[in-house]
Amino acid sequence: MNSIQSQTNGKGQESSILLMIIICDDNIQQGRDIASVLESEHHLSPNDAYFYMVQFSDTMQPSPWQFLVSIDNERDGFFQILFKNVHSYTDIKWINEKLLFIRVWWGRVLGTDLIVDVEKETIIYKEMVNGGNIPFQQWQQTE
What we know:
Blueprint: H1 2-7, H2 12-26, E1 28-32, E2 43-44, E3 51-56, E4 65-72, E5 79-86, E6 88-94, E7 99-105, E8 110-117, E9 122-130, H3 133-142
Antiparallel strand pairs: 1-5, 2-3, 3-4, 4-5, 6-7, 7-8, 8-9
């Protein structure tokens, strides 16, 4: 942690954010057919051309958990995004005919928002999310 702090002028907040970005990047794997797909509910795009399916780890087992998003974009096989070491996911939804929004939580406070272009098979937007509900509630209890 000291090396990260020295790279960010000694500010602890910046170093923890940098560390989470590194962890986030290591825990997101994307590609074609990186895991076997079990048939599950199809979530159709607005124009009914594409769909995605979600597979979750068995949460009855001890963590770390993972989940797999498999996207059918009218090509052979599936474009897949594997999320490792997740706490939970909040939301997956179509933005339009080809863009998919995914929010994944790495812990109780920090997460990542992603926008995926399913035609280009790339993540076009990725930003860390800081959920302030739990820290705010803790602050309220100290008052």
